[in-house]
Design goal:
Radius of gyration: 19 Å
Strand order of the largest sheet: 1-2
Oligomer: single chain
Largest sheet: 2 strands, antiparallel
Distance between the termini: 16 Å
Number of helices: 12
Structural class: mainly alpha
Strand content: under 5%
Length: 344
């Protein structure tokens, strides 16, 4: 495993290759940006978080320029009602009037992350506050658990009693869902372990840190322990495959393993480490990051040294050689979370 306490050379070439004057492209064909699939707000929201993390770490103007670019994309993505469209064609035509709840939640997370970051320029901050104020009335209508989780990750970064009330409301909802679904041999929020799984315990641990509500921490640790037994069953981090997932009573799908899962695991274990001080969580965060660099079920690095990109996943036949946005942003965020610090 790489020594994450030592700053490594960081290759940002693919970030700028994949980003044009509109935003970050959704896909690449091998290392070449693929305009045929256009852009997603999902990717640009997480890219805004990535750009802020880069600017905070390195302080270079080129990363500040990215902050403006991705913030502009989100501004254009917000519809008249205050929600967010997701899929945009290369010719800048939106493919729907409103995106998924997950997209909405990720946008809330990105907006709040940027507002809470002291490196965000005032002009950008004012624009993001404008967007957030227009989005806030919709939080109470969120139904899906991951959307609620992403919203919590944003709201915990904001001050004010109303934001704390919303955190508790959403966290209580996730806990009720967990308690209704979980049994002795199935400590989870749903009848299947599917995508972006770590965000559920991550959000409850974050809610615990700002509210002190022990129930949130208990559910976060119980559900994460259940997930641990699945994703570390071979010693290294191995997320549930996207071709079949893991349904109650079945077996976890082996492939494909997605880079976003390793990223959110890094953030989840780091959050639990901060909340509890347990060093085993920090070690698991490092193991999840090591998935990118070759400590995985195939023994292959997902990081493309030539471009600085991240391959799009592990398949039964090796790495998926495409270098898309979600993979890239996930890898960079995980790298920045852990590298150069002891605890992330």
């Amino acid at each position: 495993m790489d020594d994450l306490s030592v700053e490594q050379h960081f290759n940002d070439g693919h970030i700028f290759r994949l980003t044009d004057d509109t935003g970050i492209f959704q896909h690449a064909k091998y290392a070449v940006p693929d305009p045929r699939f256009g852009y997603t707000t999902d990717d640009n929201a997480r890219a805004l978080i990535m750009a802020l993390m880069l600017y905070e770490r390195y302080g270079e103007k080129k990363y500040l320029d990215l902050i403006y670019r991705y913030a502009s994309f989100l501004l254009h993505a917000q519809n008249d009602a205050g929600r967010f469209r997701n899929f945009m064609r290369y010719d800048r035509k939106w493919l729907e009037e409103e995106g998924s709840e997950d997209c909405f939640g990720r946008c809330l997370w990105a907006l709040a992350f940027a507002l809470a970051n002291r490196h965000t320029p005032d002009g950008v901050r004012n624009c993001l506050k404008y967007m957030l104020n227009r989005a806030m009335p919709h939080i109470g209508y969120i139904r899906w658990p991951r959307a609620k989780a992403y919203a919590i990750l944003g709201l915990v970064l904001l001050e004010g009693e109303e934001n704390r009330r919303l955190v508790q409301e959403l966290a209580d909802s996730l806990c009720r869902r967990y308690e209704a679904c979980s049994q002795e041999d199935w400590k989870w929020f749903e009848d299947a372990v599917t995508y972006c799984n770590s965000v559920l315990p991550w959000s409850l641990a974050a809610a615990y840190r700002v509210t002190g509500e022990e129930r949130y921490l208990r559910v976060a640790e119980e559900s994460l322990a259940f997930l641990d037994a699945i994703v570390f069953r071979g010693g290294c981090f191995k997320p549930v495959g996207c071709h079949g997932w893991y349904r109650r009573g079945g077996t976890p799908a082996e492939f494909d393993e997605q880079p976003v899962e390793a990223c959110e695991a890094v953030f989840t274990y780091s959050e639990l480490y901060q909340a509890t001080g347990r060093t085993d969580y920090l070690e698991k965060a490092k193991k999840a990051y090591a998935w990118y660099t070759g400590e995985n079920s195939m023994g292959l690095s997902l990081v493309d040294a030539e471009t600085g990109g991240c391959f799009d996943g592990l398949t039964p036949h090796g790495v998926n050689l495409n270098l898309g946005a979600e993979s890239l942003v996930s890898y960079v965020m995980a790298y920045l979370k852990l590298s150069g610090t002891e605890a992330g």
